[in-house]
Write a structure and sequence with these properties.
DNA polymerase, domain 1; 380 residues; 11% strand; three-stranded antiparallel β-sheet
Length: 380
């Protein structure tokens, strides 16, 4: 490997030869600008020559960002859930590829991404722009590992500022109205929503619930799996934390599940069928073989119901927030709430719902106040 210096005004331009491009055959150079003395520039040149001789700048043929993103998604699919891949692919195809997809990855610079994020903020919220930044940074970092790049330009870009919207769970009165409307218009959905408002389980976890997971005698359900939306179909996967958990139910919810079981058996009998041994609690067919889809089966039905109930501001996921905030406000220990929600640790629960934890240091506050206000009165 070799290098040379070029004087540019009050600076030195360092050029180090690192080989030929595999496609074009053109010579490739790593360049650096040194604003200092010639001796300082020579030191930088020597360092780059050593790094080049060790293969640091040896890369595969330069491809486009679109090509790298597709390879990265395929690589990521080995470990990530189908819903995660589908979400990432949606961002890639709708927002990244139309604007940056045809750019050569070795020509991308941090300022390309800074301008890109400014443009995206005209169309997307801060959380979505941050997600796109995460995708780009991860994909390009994989490109570095694959020796397609010497450094990650997205890692040097300005990280979009995250904005966490405040959590506004529904009130008990709103949840009661929602359940009453569901009882009238969609009894199956009423049971689904009641379990959600008691257990705090995720949408996909409830869609994956089977009768074999329901213990009506002891009043418990086992959350052992989840359903996720893949690119073309719904797939069954493990829970988000890869752990099963048992959740206790109140008598009213147990009764609602008993009625749901009876409805399921009646429907099967009318159609001259039987529930299969591993039937889903919320199924699309009378035998219980096909579960509700998380999007149309759960969210779709919920959206139609909330419109009838006049509760357009409530989201299905807000029932999970409702469970967490009510339990914490009621003094249930954070660890118990964390286990019920299926969080990885109690720290996760506190990070999300710290505002819902009531003050527990009243005695400490009174003691410190007494110290500041002077000794107590005689006989106090």
């Amino acid at each position: 490997m070799r290098g040379h210096l070029v004087r540019r005004g009050d600076a030195w331009r360092v050029h180090v030869y690192v080989g030929r491009d595999e496609i074009t055959g053109k010579q490739r150079y790593v360049t650096r600008t040194v604003r200092g003395t010639k001796r300082e520039a020579e030191k930088v040149c020597a360092t780059l020559v050593v790094e080049a001789s060790k293969g640091k700048f040896t890369t595969k043929a330069s491809g486009t960002l679109d090509g790298l993103l597709q390879d990265w998604l395929a690589h990521l699919a080995q470990n990530a859930s189908p819903s995660t891949i589908a979400t990432y692919r949606g961002y890639v195809q709708r927002w990244i590829v139309p604007r940056l997809g045809d750019k050569k990855i070795d020509r991308l610079r941090p300022d390309d991404f800074d301008r890109f994020y400014v443009e995206l903020r005209k169309h997307l919220g801060a959380a979505s722009v941050l997600k796109i930044h995460t995708i780009l940074r991860s994909a390009l970092q994989q490109g570095v590992r694959w020796r397609m790049l010497s450094e990650n330009p997205a890692a040097l870009a300005t990280r979009p500022r995250p904005v966490t919207p405040p959590i506004r769970p529904p009130t008990p009165e709103q949840v009661a109205r929602l359940l009453a409307a569901a009882d009238e218009y969609d009894p199956d959905l009423a049971v689904y929503l009641r379990v959600a408002a008691v257990a705090g389980a995720r949408r996909g976890e409830l869609c994956a619930l089977k009768w074999a997971d329901v213990d009506l005698a002891d009043g418990e359900v086992l959350i052992a799996r989840s359903l996720a939306l893949g690119t073309h179909e719904v797939v069954e996967k493990e829970t988000k934390t890869y752990r099963s958990r048992r959740i206790a139910l109140d008598p009213g919810t147990v009764k609602a599940l008993e009625e749901q079981r009876q409805r399921s058996e009646n429907r099967a009998e009318i159609c001259e069928a039987e529930l299969v041994p591993d039937a889903y609690v919320f199924a699309r067919d009378v035998a219980g073989r096909v579960p509700w889809r998380p999007d149309s089966g759960a969210t779709g039905r919920f959206l139609r119901l909330r419109k009838k109930a006049g509760l357009d501001t409530i989201r299905l996921h807000d029932l999970r927030h409702y469970v967490a905030t009510r339990l914490l406000d009621g003094g249930v220990p954070v660890r118990a709430v964390s286990e019920r929600l299926g969080h990885a640790t109690a720290t996760t629960t506190l990070a999300i719902y710290a505002h819902a934890v009531p003050a527990t240091d009243r005695r400490a506050a009174d003691m410190m106040g007494d110290l500041l206000d002077g000794p107590p009165e005689p006989g106090r």
